[in-house]
Structures are given as structure tokens and as C-alpha cells.
Amino acid sequence: MEQASTHRLRNLHSPEQLRARLDREGIPRTTLSFYRYVRLRDVEALRNELYAEWEALGVLGRIYVAPEGINAQVSLPTARLDDFRAALDAREPFANVPWKIAVEDDGRSFLKLIVRVKDKIVADGLTDDAFDVTNVGEHLDAATFNLRIEEGALVIDMRNNYECLIGHFEGAYLPKADTFRGAIEEVVEMLDERAKGREGARAAEPEILLYCTGGIRCEKASAYLKHAGFTNVGQLHGGIIDYARQLKAEGLKSKYLGQNFVFDERLAERITDDVVSTCMQCGTKSDRITNCHEATCNMLLVQCEACATTYADCCSPSCREIHQLSLEAQRAWRKGRSTRSTKTKAINDPEGLRKRIREEEELLALNGTLHPELTAVMPVPQQPQ
Ligand SMILES: [Zn+2]
Ligand SMILES: [Zn+2]
Question: Across the chain, how many H-helices and E-strands are there?
Fold first, then answer.
């Protein structure tokens, strides 16, 4: 396809325009996600076909296509769900792909349609050729997953470390590593430690249950663990998203506590009222997850309402000082600095953050600014008494 025509298969509006368009639309939308590991040929052409086809259905969202499969998180007019289902089923690789509908949903989770060609549908850092990715752990529904937990299975969270912050299964092992590959290696180490001295160590390990947001990571993780010699591996089918749906539909008791971290504007959807985390700035119980509003920082953190006020929605006094400048001054300061638009970097050392905040407040009281570079171009902002 030519450059010019490919170009039209893209959304060229600003976020403000897009949000306004969504408001004007005023029709109910449904947010859902699906994925499938399946061999796809000519992904570039497929990408363009999907974009044209789905845009016509009013689909918004983020879709990755790769030679190994598809991974999609989308929202679409609820009235078009049947058409979308038919469009998916009409394509052999996607026929009957199970999708999961988000529970807590205001239909505003995505502002535009992005279909991206990737090397992999999940960046996992694993060499797939080394093991059979289709030899996966047993798929368990919510009721069975609950039952197996009650029977004493070991539950392991396969999401990124920051995703476990504001919610997780009761008693689950939460890997500390900050990559998928690191996490899975950590899990194997932990399991080996537990299995020490056991006859036939890995194979004799009691049941291992994996879960993640939508189930996709556990496909790979469970295949990896089975390849490593663990025989009794189960996984939560459809992940936390579908677990939440099944809880509602079947009136089951949730063994997942707190909120589920999601990758759209909402950041989280609540599963239970339990608060499993604390404010990273003051240590009080809170599971309010947010990004630092200083655009070059944008770090994810858990921040209580009181601290949001104290730090003007920022992670630190240093970011607050910039964020409280006039927009013009902020722009001047940001010149030459890169702004981080990703929502996927989190503060992982609350102790360190609190120490930094104390030091910065002292310095600020002493010097009136934490950014001496500002005084070169503008007067020092007055500190409120
Ligand atoms: Zn706080
Ligand atoms: Zn910050």
C-alpha cells in the first residue's frame, strides 16, 4: 500500500477534539478485550484491513497484531457488538475468539483507534523457540479457581509489579522484578526454594495457580513453567477482568481484593472495597492510583486525597514547583526535556520517595526553590506562608 493511502488509516485529531467528539456522540459504548496466539501472515496488510473495517464500526482502542497473534483492548457502540462479533468470526484466525467485557465502564476508556504491528503481542523478553508456547496450564473458571485456592494451591500474580499495588488475590505471591522475564525467573527460584528436599522436586510441587489482567501473560508463563518441569499448573481463564464478570454473573465471593489495574484512562476498576495499599507519600491506607501531573515526570503512584492537595497532584515538592508555574513558564522549562506519556512507570520505593520529599521540603524552606535554573529566566515564585 502506498504511503498516502496508509496515512489516511490513522487518527489525526488532538485529544481535546477526540474527547469532545466522544461527548457529542452520547451513545452507550462497551469496553472489551481479547487476544489469541495464532499464526498471522502479512500482518501489515492485515493491520490496514482491520483499521478500515473496525473504524467503520465505531471501534476505538489499542490493538497489537504480530506474527504470533492479536491482542486487543477496544470500546465500541454497544449497538454494534453483534456486527463486531460477526466481523471477527468472518476472519478465520479470529473466529470464536472469546472476549471479555469490562465491568466498571463509562464507555470513555479509549479516545481513538490505534492498530499497531508488533514483533510480539506481549513484550515478554522470552525466547519462544526454546519452549512450546501452546503447552499451556489448565484453564480455570472463577469458581474452580476459588475452589483450588481453598484447597491450598499457591497463587502467583503474573502482572507487572506496579499492577499488583492496588489489588491482588488474597495471599498471592507478588514478584518484585520489574520485567515479565525477571518475574518468571524469580517465580522459578521461589518455587525451587519451596520444593527443596522434596522427592522429584519440581514435578512434586503442589498446584500452582497463575493469574494476570486478561489471561494472556499466563498463557506464556504457564507454558514456561511446564517446560521447566512443573506439572501441576493452572491459570485463571480470562484473567481478573473475566473473573470480575463471573463473580457478578454467578454471585461468587471474590478472593481478589481491591482494584484491578487497567491500561486505559481509568487506570483501575474496583473489584472489592478492600484497600490493600497505602499512600506512598504519607503511609495512610489508600488505593487511589494516579500519575504525577508534572508532564516530564508522569510517574505512577498511590496517593491519598490529602497528599494530592499537599503536593498539587505531584509526586514530590520538586515536581509540584514546576507544575504550579504558569503554563508558559512550564513550557519554557520543559523545552529540551522529554515528556513521558507512558502510564507504565511507577514509583517502586515509597521509603525512598518519603525521604526525598523530606529533604526537598527542607531545601525548599531554606532556598525558596528547588529549581535554581528557573531564577535565570524568571523571578523565584513566592512560597505561601
Ligand atoms: Zn498521603
Ligand atoms: Zn513527579
Answer: 14, 14
